[in-house]
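Name: Annexin
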Amino acid sequence: MASIIVSDHFSAVEDAEVLRKACQGWGTDEKALIAVLAHRNAVQRKQIRQAYEELYHEDLIKRLESELSGDFEKAVYRWILDPADRYAVLANVAIRKGVPDYHVIVEIACVLSPEELLEVRKAYKLRYKHSLEEDVAAHTSGDIRKLLVGLVSAYRYEGDEINARLAASEAEILQNAIKDKAFNHEEVIRILSTRSKLQLIATFNRYRDDQVTSITKNLLGEEGNEFTKVVRTAIRCINDPKKYFEKVLRNAIKRVGTDEDALTRVIVMRAEKDLKEIKEQYYKRNSVPLDQAVAKDTSGDYKAFLLALLGKE
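Structure predicted for Annexin:
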């Protein structure tokens, strides 16, 4: 379930007028911006952008970029984009880092539905005049390239059909690959990048039943191996995305110096999806409410904005 509290009353024109006023004169009225943007869903935010452009012949996103700064600007910018466009931006930023952030690419490829991923690929091509697969291939190499290109190109079956015999045989392939330390085996890449999520979950469950331990635990001993880390991330994103995102948030908050990029990414990505359940998972795991942990580790308008997305009044 979503964590944001969407206002009952909505008028795109009124909201556009409030945002215009907040950006005029000396200084920006950040409280007014948060009061509007953090309480509007994706469809409403798009209508506000359109109304703003029609009223003032100006791009709202560009205006906000010029008015805001730092982590607050980054969070607002990513929030106000259409979801597919946001994922395209996140993917591009991750790919073009000195060392590409493979985990962000895996999150996008493995957590989104086939239709959502297809929309991201369209948005990416429109925005960057390259395909997502092309840029992933250009900035990676070897087995990681094979796996990531396979994952971002996938259009998985989304129905309920599960083949138990197939799950058993592919669990065995994964067992043998781990036993022989052949994680980069083409069959491993094929299985992870083509099977439906429900089929893969059945395979992972069969693996656990046969080995009396989860596949991700069996991959833990290979922490120095970058390819294995990417495989683990893919498995965790497919198997239990809420649990995966809870850990990303936990690591972002607990490290020395908060990882604002990861914190912003997860909250903005999941606020309209399942952030409510991720918050519950966080509390169960850490005995501290997520909004309390976020409030302790952030400050100012950035803190106020994240807390509003988390559903705290």
